[in-house]
Each structure stands twice: as structure tokens, then as C-alpha cells.
Amino acid sequence: MRHKLKIAGWISIGAITGALTTVSLQTVARGSLAPLPLEELQQLASVFGMIKTDYVEPVDEKKLISNAISGMVSGLDPHSEYFDKKSFKEFREGTSGKFVGVGIEITQEDGLVKVVSPIEGTPAYRAGIKPNDLITKIDDTAVKGLSLSDAVKKMRGQPNTKVTLTIFRKDESRTFVVTITREEIQTQSVRGRVVEPGYAWIRLSQFQDRTVDDFARKVTEIYKQDPNLKGLVLDLRNDPGGLLDSAVAISAAFLPDNVTVVSTKGQLPESNFTYKAAPEFYQRRSGADPLKGLPAALKTVPLVVLVNEGTASASEIVSGALQDYKRATIMGSQTFGKGSVQTVRPLGPDTGLKLTTARYYTPSGRSIQAKGIVPDVLVDETEKGNLFAALRTREADLDHHLNSGQGPEVKDPAREKARDEARKELELEMLKPQAEQKVPELGSDKDFQLVQALNQLKGRPVMVSKTMTERKEEKKEN
């Protein structure tokens, strides 16, 4: 039977079949009777009653209950979460790789929304929006001051509705308005190309429903273009993770058949499981093996995996498995350190609970929770160094993060000092002309880490970092 635990969010088949209508001494929990603390529940009921009768203005009961659940769950760890109707819909869109919007990858710059790239074939692409365009207004709302997530929400909506974007194109020094009709967008989580004869680059930006199929198509396309590849770079930088079965499949594409890819351990019996490099561990029901037909050379082609502090969760599973079997050289900087498993269970037709149910372990038994994968070769982001990596949030920076469960943790006293220095460097960087600030696009010929990965594959000298050292697991704050 195919196991259903997922990394970083998906819906398990264990739906709750009933709903509690009253608070009782016992409640059914995963098929067994679990006692409830009566005294504490009486306190909760008392607080609920006081708020209902004594608060300055009437409060919606459903909102009170929703807030109580959210508070109870959010205090556990950074990845457990209660989904109300709106957030549950957004979560499912994120893992499916589908959403209704205009079709652009964006980031933030100077308080504005910057276009990283329009997704090919989408309304934004057809409207002529280009990389580096700045969005200054969404309909009548000025973007300055909006969070990136709020800007995204304003651009998304219902199919066939319109949104008006005000664009500032820096290289043409002009502002113009474009009205775009929203439609369903399928995000592209796989990119790749032959970078030079004999060497290819494949980037995974997330592990979604379609990632494995898209990966298989891209690999096949690359091998048709160059059947005699001498080396391949798998780029997992800034990949936040996604679906566990997708991570197992990508690992299996490079590893020998039936070896262990990852194991999970938790309280529930089904949380203790070992995933192997075999179709039954990643193949979707009623679907064919997405890896069938891949070139046999993929199992042996020299491989470098690029990672950084933004490499998290499912992408750390792939990195850890390929590292443990010495199938690839891991290059870059130490990864995020999210080594926990979340199971998502519906609570009703449109609400759900994402709950941390296990830690995961690499094939050799390593927990990377709050530590991450340490690359075989530490390489800075640029030739000038790793100036701003300390500003990136890692698992160990998150409130209530889990420890690894493998011995005591050590606090790194240099962390905040490094972050302060990086902030000062960033402030100086922002004073430079725009053209000099620009960070090279991942996969471009100016991508320093990709150049070093190709050097590694060719047996040439690699410019290793002179400043980076292994980051020890940091102690959880109580």
C-alpha cells in the first residue's frame, strides 16, 4: 500500500469522517481513544464565555473558535498550521502548481514588485511584460508598502476577470498601463538546457504535482540534443521543497534501484516508514511510472547538485540522498535545515490542519533538522564572496523550531554579528548604480556557482569559499 505522508504540505487520504459538536471527555483520534484534559478544557470554555458576554463588542463565534485552533497549532512549530477556507484553497493551489492569475514570477525591490520573469504562454507574457519591469500599482492600489504576498493576492482572482497593472520599465525610462485578463496558470517548476557541448543544467524551483513529469520531459529533450553528456548540474538553489513523492522520484532517477532514499520517524505507526528508489514509492495511483523511458546514462552521468540557504525540505531530501550514496558532489552553501514531515488532513469540505507528524532522515540516518545539508564543496554565490547569505532565514531562525532529536544543540554566537555586517554591506550595495547591483540570473553565463559546478565536472580547479565553514545545529530558544 502506498504510504501517504508528505513533506512540506500535501493532503493525506486520512480524512476526518466526523466532526465534534460538543466538548466531551474523550474523542476519537486516529482510530484510538485519547483522553482530553477536562480542567483545561473547562478553562477554555470559561474564556470563550467571558469573551462572548464581556468583550466590548459582539464577537463572531466561528472566528473565536478558528482563532483558538490557530493559536493552539501555531505554538507547536513553524510548519504546523490551521487552514481556514481561504488559506486552504491557496495551499492546494501552491502544491498543484496551478492558480488563477496573470502569470509572472515576482520579487520585491525598493518596496515595489519586480518582475523576475513572465511565464511563457501566459496573459502577462502575451501582454509584453518583461523581466525587471517594476509594478507600481495594481488596479488603484499603490504597491509601495504592500507585502509581496498581498501584492500576489491582488493580482490573483477569478478566471476571465481583469486586473490593471501600472508598469515602470527602467531601461526605457517610461511608465505605462496594461490591462490583463486573468486565467488559470500552470507554473513551470523545471527549467534546463545544454549550456555547452557535453554539459547540461537542470533547475527545479519546487516539488509540485507536475514536477516529475516535467523533469522527465526535460531530461529526454536534453539527451536528444546531446546524447553524449559528460556532466549534469542539478540546481536546487532556493527550492523550498514540496511533495515527498516527487523528491523520492527525482532521487530515484539518479540512484540504483530499490536503495533507501529517506526514512521518517514519529508517534504514529504510519509515520515510521522507509521510502525507496522504486515506482511503488512515488508512482501516482492509476498512472504510469514517470521515470520509465529515461536515458540509462542518467544513472551514471557525473553529477553536481547546487544548493544554498534557500534549499529546503524536499530538496534537502534529494541532496542528502545523493550525497550519502556519493552519487553527486554537493556544492554551494549549507541548506535551510527543514527536516520535518507535515501531514495535511481535511477538517471539513474547505478547512484543514497541517501538522508536523515526523522527522525525516537521510539514508545514512542523519537528521538535518535545524542544521541542513553541508555541501561537499563550499562555494560562494559570487566571486567577491557570500555577502548577504547571513540575511536569509533558516529553520534555526524560526520561532518554536524543532531540534534534530540527535543530541544536544550548540548556539552559534557569531550569527547575529554576521547578519549585522551583511545588513551594512547591503546598504552600501543599494547605493550603487542599478546595473552594478543586479544579481546574475540563476543559470546564466554569469552565474558564478554554475561556472564552478562546470569546472568540477571538467576536472578543473574550483574557487572554493575562503570564509564559509560548517554551520553547527543551533540551540532552540525556550
Automatic annotation (TrEMBL):
GO biological process, one term: signal transduction
Basic and acidic residues composition-biased segments: 409-422
GO CC, alphabetical: outer membrane-bounded periplasmic space
Organism expressing this protein natively: Rhodoferax sediminis
Annotated family: Belongs to the peptidase S41A family.
Domain of life of the organism encoding this protein: Bacteria
PDZ domain residues: 88-156
Protein name: S41 family peptidase
Region: Disordered, residue numbers: 400-422
GO molecular function: endopeptidase activity; serine-type peptidase activity
TM spans (from-to): none
Keywords, ordered alphabetically: Hydrolase, Protease, Serine protease
Pfam families: CtpB_N-like (PF22694), PDZ_6 (PF17820), Peptidase_S41 (PF03572)
